Structures are given as C-alpha cells and as structure tokens.
Amino acid sequence: MQQSNLPICTSTQLEAQYSARNYHPLPVVLSRGEGVYLWDENGIRYIDMMSAYSAVSFGHGHPKLLGALNGQAARLAVTSRAFYTDQLGTFLKAVIDATGLAGYKVLPMNSGAEAVETAVKAARKWGHKVKGIATGEAEIIVCDGNFAGRTTTIVSFSTEEQYRDGFGPFTPGFKRVPFGDARALENAITANTAAFIVEPIQGEAGIIVPPKGYLSACAEICARHNVLLICDEVQTGLGRTGRVLASQHENVKPDGVVLGKALGGGLLPVSAFIARPDVMDVFAPGDHGSTFGGNPLACAVGRAALEVLVNENLTERAEILGKEMMDELKAINSPLIKEVRGMGLLVGVEINPEIASARKVCETLLMHGVLSKDTHQTVVRFAPPLTMTAEELRDAMTRVRAAFGEFRLRGIDGA
Ligand SMILES: Cc1ncc(COP(=O)(O)O)c(C=O)c1O
User: Fold this and answer.
1) For 315-330, what is each residue's pLDDT tens digit?
2) 149 lines ligand 1 (CB under 6 A)
3) Is residue 111 in contact with ligand 1, taking CB distance under 6 Å?
C-alpha cells in the first residue's frame, strides 16, 4: 500500500504558492508515464484508470504518437491558417474516414470547449441563414446535467450551480430539458429551435447512460422538425464506448459531432467540429477561427492518433475489456457500491454517500496504486487507456477490489 498524505515537496509548495485554486488534486506528484502506468516523484508506480478524462486513450508515450510529434515538430509546427499546409487536408480526411461521417466537413480547433463553441456558432448561423429563423432568435436545446467545458457561453447552459456561481451575466438562447427524455425534447422544440446539443453518455454528470433508443428517438424528432442533432462526443468519441462514436450504438448519424480529448493523442489539445456541408458552409472566411486550430503539429499527431485507433483495433478492445471491467466491478461485494454503469471503457461506480464520499474512495484507490477521479461527490470514474491489456486490467481490478476491501476493514465511515 502506498502513501496518501499530500507530499510536501517543491512541486506541491510551488503549486500552493503560484497556482489559482481552481483544482483540488489527489495527493500524488506524478513525474513519468509509460503505457497505462504513471510514476510519482519517488518512483512509485500507479495504474492510470482515468486517462486525463479520456484524453490519454492511447496510453502515455505511445511510440507512434511520439514519432509523429517529434518528426512534425522538427519539420513544421505552427503556421496559422493564413497559409495552406501539407498536413491539414490529410488530417481532415482521416477524421472523416475514421468516424464514417462521409460527405461531412471538419473545422479544427484546440480544446473541447472551443469546438463546442464552434458548434453553437454554426448552429445559430445555420438557424438564421438557412432555416430562416429571425436574426437573434435562434434557440439551442441542451440537457440538464450537461457538461461541455468552461467558457462563459458554455456555463450559461450548465445546470451545475458551482460552474455558474458569480460568472454571469450569461449568454441567452438556451433551453434545457431532462436528459434521457425524448418526449421532453419534442415538447421544447419551437419554430426558433436551431439545434439540440447532447452527449450520448453524460460523462461529467457521473457517467449517465440514457435509456436504450433515446438517441435514435431524438434523431427522428430533430429530423422531423428540421432541428440539427449535434452530439458532443468530446468524451465518448474515438472508441471510448466500444464504437468509434457513441452515437453509432444507435445507428445515429448526427448532423454535427464534436470531438476533442483523445484526438490529440494525449499529447496536444486537438478538437474538431464535424458537420453536414450545408451547416459548415455557413462559415465564410473571417467568420470564425483559431491561431492554433489545425496547425501542422496538431494535424500530424491527430492523424497518427486516428491511425493508432484503427490499426490497434482499440474500439473493439474497448468493447471487450469494458464488459470485463464492468463485470469485475459489479462482482465486488461492497456496501459502498450503489451502482456500476457505463459503456465500453467509460464506467462510473456510484458510491453510497452515507458511507463515504467518492473523493475518499479515490484517495483509498490511490493508496492501492490506482489513479481515478471522483465526479459529483458520489461517482468514481474508471476510464483507462484503450491500449490497456487484459492482464493490466486484471492487475487494476485486483487493486480496486483490495481498495474496496480495505475500506470495509477501516470501518464504514472510511476514516
Ligand atoms: C462532453 C464534453 N464536452 C466538452 C468538454 C470540454 O473539453 P475541454 O476541457 O477540452 O475544453 C468536455 C470535457 O470534459 C466534455 O466531457
């Protein structure tokens, strides 16, 4: 078992002195990563069951991705979109080929939030210029419990009080409906509705899986009302749930898709908004952009990440290993566990809050060499790299079982 108290060292002291207090990290100082493992400053090894919120789907230091990064960095890294480069077109084609969104177009950005902002702008402009909604009247419907990043417009449609507290005034034009309720979506649609933006599985909300048939019902409703269905697959996309896009579980081809996180291979922030051509064509030169979006370095790494996803059959692996992980977690007999839910390698364990906080469970997991993260006080998230082997998963599950057992030994308050 490993140490859990906050190590007092130069790194933590410097963070305490110079960092804004917008994070509350677990008490470990990481200094090296390889594959599914991370090491702290003292050389203690941990298994990464969080993958930087799914950004490190291909593991740490994947040789193919490092090769693409180093090779391209030495050749040409950043030019801005003021010029063509020999990397952008092939990257965009690779995004379309990998996602199966034939005929669609791609707008590259950096963070997930920027790509969601791009989707919001595209949907509004499409609503005004193509659908014929009066200027400034376009509405977007989102779901309770959504998470799409931290910009002012995005927190404007959040239902999480902490994400909004003190940050207003907010951007108008959003309507919220309960997640998982297709009838509520249909009831909320008006002639001014341009789009419905939805996560196929809500990640930050606590790995909330909607009822079967929800997304396909939403797709049918959106099509009937000429409303764009935009899936925010920043967290669920690129193999994570056992399909390249989680929307493919229901054979849905959304009108727009947002990707991020793993698109940068765990090395760089790379995101994209992908959409039907009539949606993307609302953008004219000068309407929208980003200095770093679509830079050659990001494109080379992004293309390599998509190649790794396909060549190493990581989507299939996520489906198979995900089932195994879910079965193993469900088999743990602990009063701490209220529910295990998820899809592929995106799994949430709902902790009984009367016994312990999810944070306390994560600290206990840390002592057993497992890195994971609590979300919303009651859920522990398990989202390991998709490159994890069956043997590594078994190692992780042995540690997880020991952590839950240890918890019981220490008494039900977890103290
Ligand atoms: C579904 C979803 N959309 C958007 C984002 C925002 O991505 P970023 O943190 O890169 O801005 C996240 C981040 O967790 C997410 O889970």
Assistant:
1) 999 999 999 999 999 9
2) yes
3) yes
